[in-house]
Amino acid sequence: MPEHKQTIPVVAGALMRPDGQFMLGSRPAGKPYPGYWEFPGGKVEAGETPLAALVREFQEEMGITVTHATPWLRRVHHYEHASVELLFYRIWAWQGEPQPHEGQAFAWQQPGHLSVKPMLPANDPILRSLQLPDVLNLTCIAETGRDALLDKLAQHQDAPWVIVREPQKNREQLAALVGEISEIIHPRGGKLIVNADPAWLKGWPVDGVQLNSQRLAACEARPHFAWVGASCHSRTELDRAAALGLDYALLGHVQATASHPGQAALGWDGLAACLAPAAPLPVFALGGLRTANLDAARQAGAHGVAQMRGAWQ
What we know:
By secondary structure, this protein is an alpha/beta fold.
């Protein structure tokens, strides 16, 4: 890998529609990688904050005024011509209609189903992150009861992502529960992830594994599953999860919870401080939260929220 004397700070933004579609732009002639597709953005100028740079770049590139954007992800990428530190934002609201001011093209895309290529290499992990949901649902059968949990899942009209977290169950009990949940959510396109020893899950109808903090610390390489997440409590653990190439992390607890009596919560300011200037991988805020807290979590730099008791009430 070539060494570069300086890393260039760059901002990039994903315009987000309510249906989950996002916008990509092509790189114009005269720039490195002409014709490649990317998330629009540009360099952060001296004395400029990343958010101010984002607003300026979108005004210059496509003539829109960004009115609501939240920090999302940080990536460092080494190109042949330069190293760049990319701070990605998701843009939820803007004024005006995007117009190509620099001879580029724009295209709305559906997560997981791109219709344009080639993509700028630095953006591959970002595209995968957009396939993640806004909300993850963690099971807690000791409190909800098995029947109530399965009934609630059956009532879902969407395709939920469920993390089975039942440390009190042995392998056989866990396998039976996973099978029951799979029969409900997989026909609707939902995803099923299990917090357990990865070796247990061979042959189970799962989409991924969730590593607790002990397994994360002991992990030397990413487990071979389509989706791999980790439960984290600090920026150090988040950075380790990112270094292993994991897809997301849970971070908490943000608010006081019944399962953590007497333990100090991060709070929203603590969450934002832990994720600043942007998270190294998509983070779901956890701890006393539910879907109603989604915007606050995004403002703090999280991808979304993970809810436990709130998911089954």
